[in-house]
Structure formats: C-alpha cells, structure tokens
Amino acid sequence: MRLTKKSIILLAFSAILIVLGLWNYADSSPVTLDVIASTVVLVAVGWTLALTVFEPSWTKAAIFMDGLIFLAVGISFLLMPYNLIFILFGIILLAIAVAAYLGKLPLSF
C-alpha cells in the first residue's frame, strides 16, 4: 500500500489520539470513571481511524465499532448528563453504520 499525504495525516492524527488517551490515563493521580471513559474513547477512535487508513473497506465496521464504544462508555462509565450525550452519539453512529450496511446511504456525497 502506498501512503498518500492524506493517509499520513490521518495516521498522525490517530497516533495523537491514542497517545493523548494513554497519557490522560497515565497522568491522572486518582483514576476516575471519567478518565477511564475518555481513555477508552480516544484509544478506540484512534485505532479505528488507523484501521480504516489501511483497510478502507472496513469503514462501516469501524463506524459500527465506534458507535458500540460510545454506547458502552455512556452506559457504564459516565454519570447522568454526560452519559446521555455519549449514548445518543453512539446510537447515531450505530444507525449510520446499519444504514450503510443495508445500502440505504449514498456511496459518496
């Protein structure tokens, strides 16, 4: 696979997301549920972004996985007002991924 300028920028951005997520976890003195939630989300989004750079056909699966991660983090780690935002965003990502799998979305805009 030949890396283009766009893919190099996306890989750098995904590396930054993963490093920020791990740094957030390593830097906090009391590890709270908010720290765990932000670490999980940043690492998962960075990993799926890097995955879609190398396998563009897995974009739908990456969106589905990110939706599941946001939904799981919103349900399990976060408290009341913030968890609703994560749950809603996770449901939106899941709906987009399912619609893409069913072929209800246009191929490109």
From TrEMBL:
It comes from Methanobrevibacter olleyae. This is Uncharacterized protein. Keywords: Membrane, Transmembrane, Transmembrane helix. The chain crosses the membrane at residues 7-26, 32-54, 61-79, 85-103. It comes from the Archaea.
